[in-house]
Amino acid sequence: xxxxxxxxxxxxxxxxxxxxxxxxxxxxxxxxxxxxxxxxxxxxxxxxxxxxxxxxxxxxxxxxxxxxxxxxxxxxxxxxxxxxxxxxxxxxxxxxxxxxxxxxxxxxxxxxxxxxxxxxxxxxxxxxxxxxxxxxxxxxxxxxxxxxxxxxxxxxxxxxxxxxxxxxxxxxxxxxxxxxxxxxxxxxxxxxxxxxxxxxxxxxxxxxxxxxxxxxx
Length: 217
Description:
Elements: H1 2-15, E1 25-33, E2 36-46, E3 49-66, E4 69-86, E5 93-102, E6 105-111, E7 117-120, E8 123-126, H2 127-130, E9 131-138, E10 142-153, E11 161-170, E12 175-182, H3 189-205, E13 211-216
Antiparallel strand pairs: 1-2, 2-3, 3-4, 4-5, 4-6, 5-10, 6-9, 7-8, 9-12, 10-11, 11-13
């Protein structure tokens, strides 16, 4: 978590040395947000309409429990976005719509319980039978974005400005794939059936991520 805070602070400082898109002008800036750390560039055609594009990335390691199994989890964010910004009042407030290209990866390596077992799909297997339990999660590769934002700074949009955006990416349901390698039952049909049942349970447990919240500075 300290890496998240430190990275966000660095990007927030960098944004002070960039000028986001001004009216009738090009701009670029650093970004810190839930899509990752990165940069955006844009063009404000007039007081009411602008275009932006951005690249964002981040990597975060943690651990967590899902359906009774502990996992070492690695989240790697890799996103690109393209947006149309509508400023209905010709000022800093904007309504944004666009698309986010999602190359995020969520991988986890399972750990057996204190008795050296896994409970997979309601069936108990030993660590020797399972070997390495690995899970991978993915979402739709391209997803719509809708959000609201505000540009703070110079009245004409030029010079030193800071923007804040909040929105949602409609990224679809999580697709989970579980594999067992190196175990005495890794190719066994009963274990494969248990893995399939566990995949369905995980997808049902994590269905709240259909809508991914976006907050960006």
